[in-house]
Amino acid sequence: MNKTVIATDGAPAAIGPYSQAIRVGNLVFTAGQIPLDPATGQLVHGAITEQTTRVLESLKAILEEAGSSLEKVVKTTVFLKDMNDFAAMNTVYDFYLGANGAPPPARSTVEVARLPKDVRVEIEAVAEV
Question: What is the dihedral of CA 98, 79, 123, 102, to 10 degrees?
Answer without folding.
Answer: -10
